[in-house]
Amino acid sequence: xxxxxxxxxxxxxxxxxxxxxxxxxxxxxxxxxxxxxxxxxxxxxxxxxxxxxxxxxxxxxxxxxxxxxxxxxxxxxxxxxxxxxxxxxxxxxxxxxxxxxxxxxxx
Length: 107
Hints:
With 107 residues, the protein is mainly α. The chain is built from 5 helices and no strands.
């Protein structure tokens, strides 16, 4: 089989463990899990809860569909995230931009 399980357990989306096809929404899931860990107890507070739940929805079709959509959710004044994510190491443009926005809002 050409299907190989990749990713860190707990960060990889449910569809990856079911050996279903993954796409960019798998990365959105991982970003959501990472943000939950960075926010700690703040993750259950409004407005963070809405964004994080949407990132980590079980069904990919219920998550943000793109990194840009996730960024729009974070930049929305009613959903601003006040936590620093400057330690991002993934290197993708959209993720770096998302982490930069979050870091700027923490000031």
